[in-house]
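quick one, two chains, predict together pls
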Amino acid sequence: MFDDQDLGFFANFLGIFIFVLVIAYHFVMADPKYEGN
Amino acid sequence: MAEPESSTAAAGGSRLRNACGGVLCAFTLLLIGVLAFSIRLFSVIKYESVIHEFDPYFNFRVTQFLSKNGIYEFWNWFDDRTWYPLGRVIGGTVYPGLTLTAGTIWWLLNSLNIPLSVETVCVFTAPIFSANASWATYLLTKEAKGTGAGLMAAAILAMVPSYISRSVAGSYDNEAVAIFALIFTFYLYVKTLNTGSLFYATLNALSYFYMVCSWGGYTFIINLIPIHVLLCIVTGRYSSRLYIAYAPLVILGTLLAALVPVVGFNAVMTSEHFASFLVFIILHVVALVYYIKGLLTPRLFKVAMTLVITVGLAVCFAVIAILIALVASSPTKGWSGRSLSLLDPTYASKYIPIIASVSEHQPPTWPSYFMDINVLAFLIPAGIISCFLPLSDASSFVVLYLVTAVYFSGVMVRLMLVLAPAACILSGIALSEAFDVLTRSVKYQLSKLFDDSPAASGDSSAESSSASTVSTNSAKNETRPEKTETAPKEKPSKKNRKKEKEVAESVPVKPKKEKKLLVLPMEASVLGILLLIVLGGFYVVHCVWAAAEAYSAPSIVLTSRSRDGLHVFDDFREAYAWLSHNTDVDDKVASWWDYGYQTTAMANRTVIVDNNTWNNTHIATVGTAMSSPEKAAWEIFNSLDVKYVLVVFGGLVGYPSDDINKFLWMVRIGGGVFPHIKEPDYLRDGNYRVDAQGTPTMLNCLMYKLCYYRFVETDGKGFDRVRGYEIGKKHFKLTHFEEVFTTHHWMVRIYKLKPQKNRVRGKLKKLKSGSKASSTNAAGRKKNPWQ
């Protein structure tokens, strides 16, 4: 059964994972060529 | 030939990058929605799928009525089970947005053969709309500062504790949908500002209509947007887009708002809305001036201006004088009590105890800021700074939203909810800017590390040589084309880029535009990213903790952990179930107004006052009864046809939100209308106490007696665990009330009014003769004339 501790772990994991995903998005979209040129 | 190849490769690369970014963005948004929904389920998993607190019970009851009887019956619903004997016109006094939303969801699900109960739909409405609010935040922030900032802001809002506190599963209150409506209306306003599209302007008015349907906080929108328009005009940012964004909103929005019964003509008659009309007039004057300026020669324009200003000032003074006279002629100067208490934080505590008595209307403390927005409080200043680099209409709106929301959140703790989205947006912008610089640096350094082909090295050397001489602003415009209005024009023009290259070749250094590019060393960038992940991690852990521990309690079921394990206090439902099973359908139940909604919803009994608090005199009557001695209280309750009196008492289990702790408000509100109730009579040297030092008035009032009747039998001493001392008056009997039910933990106690004795002719004589025979007997009878 899915109890509150499981939900806590899930929410913590998902929250941090989303942070990482957002950083990944910034990394993907970053364009150093334009910055450099 | 090499140039077209490299340009197609670059175009292909950017297309691939955009495609990857798009997929990542969509996936992240989906996960943000999942997080926003799931983080609000602690209340269901830890407790049960149940409606929370007080107001949600009323909303639930209204939704039940709507789903059972349909929309027309709902509009015409006169509820005779509340505010007895006055009743309440529910259809005309309720904000119907939440109810209609949940009712529509329920109807849709049932049409699709998904037979969910109304209660289940109500319980999960708030988490669903939290996901919507996150996506709306993404859209708004994207309009202001680009997709990256939008994603970050949406992620932060999905789990911000301030919003969680009002939108956990079961918290079926107006704010649950209203925050979504608020953010979405702001998004559409900003979108209209950026595009100048009438389509978005119309959508904006419709969204505003939904907000008006949902929450009284719509006045925030109809004041904030005019302030922003005024700001734009004053700072010389007037444009036709501004006109399109504002004028349809005022006209269409006000017409639509007037359709909501609870607002009606207030939309044009109360001062909360006047600012929008005033700015509407100013906007037209400015538009006219710009139009005439285009038609006339500069000299003629100057003459015309002088003429217009002279006439205009005269007209303005006349209009302002009329407005002031109109406003001053209304009793509250055109402002409602709640709005006045927003502008003057001390107003409520001075004049409206019924507003001041609600804990959520108190000013917040500093720790509550840290609890509710956590690290965002420190990120906001950085967000404000990046909003000014460069300042656009959208970013100035975001800053203005934050500034006003900070002020209002300082007035009452409830409005932290309005601050939360602004805090999330600005923090999202700040973090996104940081991520932009850091990830760009990492990517730049990586490309420098791995590029070792001669051409590439030439490129990279060119990059590195020019890296320090590039204008950061233009670079930013290119990386995030959607960020500013001018960006879309700049992005597709490859010609411009070529021209720039040519210029760079021919003129290697342009001293005017030179600025150092923000490229950090690899180690610093990676460390920065890691530190920001750690910061984000702390924020996530705090939010999950707040959701799980602080904001999930439904308040009708309480729990406590001790060495023996988990204790569940389900006294409220026990009491309401008793009322529903053991009293007549038409019996009237009196209690303090806090429990009115619950009593009508759960016990289905008529109440005297409830959480709507529309009639101060009626509430003051109940307050006076509770503050009076037993006999006087019995007379008041009897005059209101009350059969049962319900009190909440926490002294046995240590539940601090009980009626004894709320009692001084009953005295204040009662004393506000009935001057014979005086607060000092209940205080000993200015201190409120119910121990042996308590005043006789306090120890003899009805509330004390109903709470502490037979309390001494529990432990032999009468020790009150909330107040932390033994009570003052331990042994007493009730003369006009009889105890009919006390819940398992003594948290709810229900008393019945003893019936009035029939007057029997000649009984007085008998009593008198009896008194001669036995004086003690007579004394006993005199004490209790109703038996």
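The CA atoms of residues 7 and 13 of chain B lie 10 Å apart.
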